Amino acid sequence: MVECNYRCHNCNLLLSLIYRDLVHRQTAMAAIGHLALGVYGFGCEDALTHLLNYLWPNVFESSPHVVQAFMACMEGMRIGLGPAKILQYSLQVSLLKLLTALLVSIIWHLLSGSRFLKRYSKVLHRQLLSRGLVLKTHLFWTGL
Predict the structure, then answer these.
(1) Mean pLDDT taken over the chain
(2) What DSSP assignment string belongs to 19-85?
(3) Is residue 27 part of a domain?
(4) In a domain, 20, yes or no
(5) How many Å apart are CA 102 and CA 108, to the nearest integer?
(6) Cα angle, residue 51 at apex, residues 82 and 49 outer, rounded to 5°
(7) How far apart are CA 94 and CA 118, in angstroms?
(8) Is the pTM of this model over 0.85?
(9) Domain range for 8
């Protein structure tokens, strides 16, 4: 019975997660978080994983309300799916951030001899430093 109800309302939740409007995504995340808590123990892990795949790109949002809704939804998913599945998704994001930092570092060192970087190196260094990329990549390249 729970699976039938999920299929009827699934399209509206998925469309809300795809919309650009933050309010739709925030509302959908609140509903999915409560749904995950409500179906705990009914064997709906595959449906929750499907919703998590649409929910997970919101991990990069910076709006405080969406971040709060995302974290509340992740707490519900942690109960509904188990902490191991959430850890698996979290480690993928950590690996993506590490690879991005390494790519920025490689590009920085390849272009360090160009006129562009000599002229704008202080500006670029400040931008990278504000994102926390310079310290990690500097330690990588110096071998420390």
Answers:
(1) 76
(2) SS-HHHHHHHHHHHHHHHHHTTTTT-HHHHHHHHHHHGGGGG---HHHHHHHHHHHHHHHHHH-HHH
(3) yes
(4) yes
(5) 10
(6) 40
(7) 31
(8) no
(9) 1-81
| Close Cβ partners of 108 (under 8 Å, ≥ 6 residues apart) | 117, 124, 128, 137
DSSP of 94-109, one letter per residue? HHHHHHHHHHHHHHHH
In a domain, 101, yes or no: yes
Res. 7: pLDDT tops 60: no
Structure tokens at 20: 């650009």
Q: Label residue 26 by pLDDT band (50, 70, 90).
A: very high
- Domain identity same for 73 and 108: no
Task: From 32, 60, 81, give the residue that closes a domain.
Answer: 81
Q: Is 87 a domain residue?
A: no
Domain count of the fold of the chain: 2
